[in-house]
Design brief:
Length: 110
């Protein structure tokens, strides 16, 4: 995931103060810097922390803006439960779940 478009969008999300942003999402600043520099690929926990801080993770990954989920009554009621469910999935299950969401997003976007 070390493509330059992702890193550029991540820099935009983080802003000028990497230390403050890292503290806000609860990760060490050197870890955040390694993601921005493309040394390491972030994992699920990083993206979950971003989503919990209202970062449009879909845009960060694809460059395409998501629908405003906070305006969706279903998401307001079930979003946290869905997040908890996803956090219980193992790596293989998360990958399969992610593939389904990507295909769903593509079919909706067409």
């Amino acid at each position: 995931m070390s493509d330059s478009a992702f890193r550029t969008r991540l820099k935009e999300v983080v802003g000028d103060n990497t230390s403050e942003f890292a503290r806000k999402i609860g990760i060490p600043q050197p870890t955040l810097h390694s993601y921005i520099a493309g040394k390491y690929d972030p994992g699920y926990d990083f993206f979950q922390r971003l989503a919990e801080n209202d970062v449009d993770v879909n845009w960060l990954l694809t460059g395409k803006r998501s629908a405003v989920l906070s305006d969706d009554p279903w998401m307001r009621r079930h979003g946290k439960d869905l997040g908890k469910l996803i956090s219980k999935l193992n790596k293989k299950e998360r990958s399969a779940f992610s593939a389904v969401l990507i295909k769903l997003n593509q079919s909706i976007s067409e």
